[in-house]
Amino acid sequence: MDSALDAKLRILADAAKYDASCASSGAPKRAADKNGLGSTTGCGICHSYTPDGRCVSLLKILLTNYCLFDCAYCVNRRSSNVRRARFTVDEVVALTVAFYRRNYIEGLFLSSGIIRSPDYTMEQLMLVAKKLRCEQGFAGYIHLKTIPEASPDLIEQAGLWADRLSINLELSSERSLRALAPEKRGATIRAAMGQMRERIALAREERRRFSPAGQSTQVIVGADDTTDQAVLQTSDTLYGSYKLKRVYYSAFSPIPEASAALPVKPPPLRRENRLYQADWLLRYYGFSVAEIAAGGKNGMLDLDIDPKLAWALKHRDRFPVDVNSAEREMLLRVPGLGKRAVDRIVTARRHARLRLDDIARLSAGVKRARAFLITADHHPAATTDRLDLRERLVPPPRQLGLF
Ligand code: SF4
Prior knowledge:
The longest helix is centred in the middle third of the chain and has 20 residues, at 186-205. The radius of gyration is 23 Å and the shape is globular. The protein has a seven-stranded mixed beta sheet. A two-stranded parallel ribbon has the order 8-9. The chain is built from 15 helices and nine strands. Helix content is 38%, strand content 11%. The protein is an alpha/beta fold. The structure holds iron/sulfur cluster. Residues 67, 69, 71, 74, 76-77, 113-114, 181 line the site of iron/sulfur cluster.
């Protein structure tokens, strides 16, 4: 790679790292083996999950970090004193193809600051995807960030070439958007999400291609005083009304020469982690936002324990539950039992009365679950009588339990 392109790549890969909507960019590094089976050590390479659950390496970059907007929380804002760079469409196409051929990546995650106009920027992003598909025969994964104000025609074309489109909401309240991102409008973003939802549904009905992996968004956490409950309420609406595939939570990171309206410290990283766990409970475990929030205080999740355990400890009268007779919905609420383990339990109990050893075979979380479960050979004391339960179940630092 020539040195000018390499310098641009360094700037624009670094500028893209704040976008969490391509998940797990903090994945551990894998070194390429000598047969060249892939590497995560290259500049701008992150991991993400495709809708069918595969973990893929993506080239994650911005087309440019120049931007007309001045969102206070963003390192690329107009007034920021950062080094700027801009790729041409052909440079991004060439880089993607070169990385793909070397087996470094399986796809591209492309976002951009807004230059000239929303339509111009969107057209440039769309052209990268179009050229990759039509001129290079690129069959890898493409995730394009879209600009809410861009014309419907450009979004339609972007959806034709990309696998997933996303529009970042960034802040859940209109008040915070007005204060920290004065050029953005929550109503415009939501309207764009609504149109995207309709396009995706229509294309499915008509069996034509339009963003087959759906749409996603990112919400920044800790840049304003929005509570976890309000953030989760927003996510619930986005999943329900706009049919988003994923909401990504990105802990605010302080930036140089930041506005006085921003906190000087980032939120605890565990807050992001707890929000992801709560999001999982909303989507797959039948919990409502109010139930999840009730596990914490003042609308904030308990940072010391996961939200499912927090709910169980506040509803001890609902436990222990009998694995051999409880409804599936109640089993899903048992700390330590994941969705897959519950499905295995429900299948297995049709054939025999389950014992604690059986649960240990069916679930890796039996240690945590046993205080909340009755099996054929295990009858724990009522959880209401176990005053030390929380202390016994809180994991030592750095070993946070995931359900
Ligand atoms: S529009 Fe995007 S890139 Fe531009 S300042 Fe706002 S968040 Fe940053």
